[in-house]
Amino acid sequence: MPRPPVVAEYCHNLGMSRQSAPSLTRQAIVRTALTMVERDGYAAFTMPRLGDELGVRTASLYHHFRDRADILTEIARTIVLETDLPRIAPSAHWTEYFVTLAVNFRRTILRHRNAAPILLQFLPRDVLTPLYETAAQVLDQADELAPSSRILVLDGMDRIGLGSALLEAAASPEADGPFPNASAEAQPTLTAALTQNALDAEQLFVESIRAFLAGVLANQEARGG
């Protein structure tokens, strides 16, 4: 029996009020998910809430992603791919490539502070590994660096550069510089050292990277390598 015209029109409008699965794209889903994470935080992100944000039924999301983890993995990839690769003059010292790469990645991560837990859990190694191949090619041209020190540089940059940036992003945005909980009464030596520091957070980050790279060269020289 045909539906009455009013009911048919109502059903039609109801169906049109929510997007169908084919009208969605993976990119649109990921961008919306990232916006939600940045606005509401990682813990508040759920598939039903994402569906509501997009105006679709939750089941429609599974046409494009296996599960929540699959979306979070793609968010992590999207963030990493935002990082600008260094454009260093041929005359520049090889260490400048690594300092610039670390700074660029740090800035990318800090633009997405609320997504830092996603990067910690779903770091896209498939994206990072080709970047490290390029970095290894830079080191291959560094005559002063022994071949045996190349992995030390790459692994150290991964742990120090990437790790410290992620930890900084995960910290409270209100934290003012390093050791924000230090007390002059309880930690007088630490707070005295803090008063002597003239570097901001990014400058401290840069100097930490430079110190590590200089230490690799100094250690190599001390070993006679």
Largest sheet: none
What is the averaged pLDDT score? 87
Q: CATH fold name of the largest domain, please?
A: Tetracycline Repressor, domain 2
What spatial form do the alpha-carbon principal axes imply?
flat
Gap between N and C termini, in Å? 88 Å
Low-confidence stretches: 4-22
Beta-strand residue fraction: under 5%
- Counted up, domains total 2
Helix percent reads 55-70%
Order of helices and strands: HHHHHHHHHHH
Overall SS class:
mainly alpha
Please give the CATH class of the largest domain. Answer: Mainly Alpha
Number of strands: 0
- Radius of gyration, Cα only, in angstroms? 24 Å
CATH H-level superfamily title of the largest domain: Tetracycline Repressor, domain 2
- Helix count from the secondary structure assignment: 11
CATH architecture grouping of the largest domain: Orthogonal Bundle
What does this structure look like?
This is Regulatory protein TetR. One of its GO terms (molecular function) is DNA-binding transcription factor activity. It comes from Pseudofrankia inefficax (strain DSM 45817 / CECT 9037 / DDB 130130 / EuI1c) (Frankia inefficax). This protein is mostly helical. The protein is built from eleven helices and no strands. The longest helix is centred in the C-terminal third of the chain and has 22 residues. About 8% of the residues have low confidence.
Question: How are the secondary structure elements laid out?
Answer:
Blueprint: H1 5-16, H2 26-40, H3 47-54, H4 58-61, H5 68-81, H6 94-111, H7 116-122, H8 125-140, H9 150-170, H10 188-195, H11 201-222
